[in-house]
Design a protein that fits this description.
This protein has seven helices and 20 strands. The chain is α+β, with helices and mostly antiparallel strands and 325 residues long. It has three domains: 2-27 and 76-173, PH-domain like (Roll), CATH 2.30.29; 30-73; 180-324, no CATH class. The strands form four sheets. Strands 10, 11, 12, 13, 14, 15, 16, 17, 18, 19 and 20 form an eleven-stranded antiparallel beta sheet that branches. Strand 18 (296-303) and strand 19 (306-313) form a beta hairpin. The radius of gyration is 33 Å and the shape is elongated.
Length: 325
């Protein structure tokens, strides 16, 4: 059966099966076909050599010994589960083989048959009772890749490599070089309940009050009293916007394009060159307007009798807050 699975993977998925483990294999084949064909050939030989019976008997023998066994062949069942470093594979009939990449799993759940994983239209069902201890290996892989979609298991997400040795599956953690964004997150994660890189389009800043702002190592930090988090944000699991308090926005590797200070009641403008001076000026200011651009932002901030307009580019943004109200 592995040869059949290997051919399907190569033809349908362009994947060459090399290292793998068969977690479960049960095949219920119709074993009557070969004996029935042999018996029918014997009947045919008797028919042509002895004329001991007429054609009706031969036709009846064909129906009993050939047609019925062939029809029963459709009832053959396959239950084969295989994993590779990239795929989980299940065969349910002779021709029906489904392979789903671990990284492409979009849905995880359970039903009466056990665990169900999906990648769009593809679906694989796993029965823990027959997989026994091997189901734990599958779960470890899914949890490491974040494919159980369980927030309480997010701490288990990590880069891994799946290794097969002596028919055993081993999960080896892959050491990665910490990025500058990861370093920012790790430095501040203890102070905020939620801290996520990106997803700035799901944040509404209207009338957000700036409690503190400063530049540090070319990163721009803005501490905000409250922000509105839209339902599209991964940390907002509700189907409506939520208000978060004690918030922070960290813009990494900032390149300021312009800072202009304008009187509310007049047309007089002043270009601010000093970034530290600007960060002090906007404390207790209110963000009245903003525009998100790809790796860039324009802010309009009211401070006392002034409007401060600032535009800058950035590498990445990290947004966090302590809790939802």
């Amino acid at each position: 059966m592995i040869d059949k699975i290997s051919r399907v993977l190569l033809r349908k998925y362009k994947y060459k099966l090399e290292s793998y483990k068969v977690l479960y294999e049960e095949i219920n084949k119709n074993r009557l076909i070969i004996p029935s064909i042999i018996l029918f050939l014997i009947v045919v030989a008797f028919y042509f050599t002895t004329n001991a019976f007429d054609f009706v008997v031969l036709a009846f023998a064909f129906f009993i010994l050939i047609i019925i066994p062939l029809a029963l062949k459709k009832d053959e069942t396959y239950d084969i589960v295989v994993i590779t470093p990239e795929y989980i594979i299940k065969q349910t009939t002779k021709r029906n083989i489904t392979a789903i990449k671990f990284d492409d799993i979009k849905k995880f759940g359970t039903n009466n048959n056990g665990i169900v994983i999906k990648d769009g239209e593809l679906e694989i069902s796993l029965d823990p009772s027959v997989l026994a201890e091997d189901i734990l290996i599958v779960m470890d892989i899914l949890e490491a890749k974040g494919k159980t979609f369980d927030k309480t298991k997010d701490y288990m997400i990590r880069p891994i490599k799946i290794v097969f040795t002596d028919d055993e599956v081993k999960i080896v953690e892959v050491k990665t070089i910490e990025s500058s964004t990861d370093r920012i997150v790790s430095e501040h994660i203890g102070n905020y309940g939620m801290l996520t890189p990106g997803f700035i389009d799901d944040i509404l800043l209207l009338n957000a009050v700036i409690e503190e702002a400063y530049f540090k190592e070319n990163n721009f930090y803005i501490k905000i009293a409250r922000i509105e988090v839209k339902p599209g944000h991964p940390e907002n699991i509700l189907f409506e916007s939520q208000i978060a308090n004690d918030c922070i926005m960290i813009f990494e590797n900032v390149n300021v394009s312009s800072i202009v200070k304008r009187e509310v009641s007049g047309t007089k403008e002043e270009v601010i060159e000093n970034q530290d001076s600007f960060s002090k000026d906007i404390r207790k200011g209110v963000i009245s307007d903003w525009k998100y651009r790809k790796n860039g932002i324009d802010l309009q901030i009211y401070v006392k009798q002034y409007i401060i307009l600032v535009s800058f580019e950035y590498k990445e943004v990290v947004i966090g807050w302590k809790k939802f109200i």
